[in-house]
Write a structure and sequence with these properties.
The chain is α/β, with parallel strands linked by helices and 585 residues long. Helix content is 41%, strand content 17%. The strands form 5 sheets. An 11-stranded mixed beta sheet has the order 2-3-4-22-19-18-10-11-17-15-13, sandwiched between helices. A hairpin with a 5-residue loop joins strand 2 and strand 3.
Length: 585
Amino acid sequence: MNQALIGSAKIPEAESQIPPTSTADLDQALQDLQANAAAWIDVSLDERIALLARLRASTYKTAERWAKAGCAHKKIPLGTPTESEEWLGGPFTTLRNLRLLERTLREIRETGAPKLPSTPKTRPDGTVTVEVFPSEKWDPLFYKDMRAEIWMDASVSEENLPEHTGMIYREKAKGNTEEPKVALVLGAGNVSSIGPMDAFYKLFCEDQVVALKMNPVNDYLGPFMVEALKELVDRGWLRVVYGGAVEGKYLCDHEIVSEIHITGSDKTHDAIVFGTGEEGARRKAERDPLNTKRITSELGNVSPVIVVPGPWSQSDLDFQGQNLASMLTNNAGFNCNATRVIITHEAWQQRKDLLDVVRATFDRTPTRAAYYPGAQDRMSRFVGAHPNAEAHGDTKEGHLPWTLIPDLDPSTEDEICFSTESWCSVFGEVALSAESTVEYIEKAVDFCNNRVWGTLNVALVVHPKTMKDPAVAAAVDAAISKLNYGSVAINHWPAVVYGLVTTTWGGAPGHTIYDVGSGIGVVHNTYLFDRPAKAVLRGPFRMSPKPPWFCTAKNSHNLAKKLTAFEAEPSWFKVPGIAAQALKG
């Protein structure tokens, strides 16, 4: 594979909508945080629990204006199903994160550790797994028949698992505390919950105060972050600052900043660690970093979906075709977990039928404003390499079509669809030859691990009738284990793993700053495991009512508002209203 192509496509810097924070004000922000870092460490469990409850209340007060601002910027018409994206990817998930952190801290106060929702199990290969979803009585109501596990690092056993749960709070109970630290969080520009949730991880899971630099793409949301998290700001534990690469470099290099967390591209990571141009390439090759601070990151993925052949009905094809299309259309394709490569079995007779449903779904899904800089150029690069690329959906100025590139050649070493995250509304399909379903699964796993760039997330779609074959079931189980990804989702979009929050979110373990891949470390992880290896989501092959993240859902905007209100303050009295909206499709 051509190494020059590996990784994220180059993304030009967006024009700021809020003026960059001056150097003097950046210095002052960091000095304020430094002055209050020790006080944050000393905040008791009781105070943190109360604080999280207050943050939920203040965040919910901003929720509607926050979501509407996102819609305005992305040119999403209010009152349409697409509006749901700005609720679910913004205040809904943020509120859920706050609520589940509060629950964890209550459990630590009561018992000394988070209360796990299931008994840990050990797989035949010795891997310890903990089911972390459903984690409370509400979950089966809203995520019917979905389950999620965290698989632990090989060093974790059932016996020593308690030693790897609770993170800073376990150490505090022993009288051990970290030195006060100021963390820099470089926020993402696509999904509005990423920045605040990354900040929560540093604050509540790692005991570090935070400078959150907004990405120029969505810096208009900064004032909402300040309002929602006002108490953190007022007490000197959070600062929200603005600017582009210049301000980002100044902050990364600043002596007050101890640690950095990035959500973005591997190109940004390498520029921070090694510098740019020939000098940066030399430093990386010689393992001579400019910036030696601890850096954690989530850096994207060419997200594959392995489709296991089976006896699919037309209803099955319709559901899963819409599922695959929705994984790309959400947020106009500007998601690190968007479908980028569909992997199929060449001999499967229903392969074309499934792709035809994907095409039909694209054709009836309104195209979107390409709000992320450079999207047209990236699309042109992919389409230019593939004359057979199919454009679907009516487009207008500023929009890009939903684009499918079928029949990719799996033997092409420098195939851009395998090596480069497109970061726009395009994906490819590749068919692998195999003598049996078991052989196909094994080849697909090898293809993902060795030919497709990134280790963030992968999906595997398999019919329940297919799973009745013991050999296939064993092959699927082995695939889940062997797939070198931070999240493996069965039958559903891996973005659900992001949204559950009890699960971990990040690349597969093992990356270093010299080969950073999809990043180092995890976020979310509200049970506070310190040695997780991957999250595994298992969901039903078909769901009814239709999930609200489907692009074909007709009432998802109203449902999303109800779900957001629920996360702000759960109540049985709210459940009938949620059910009524869900049943409207």
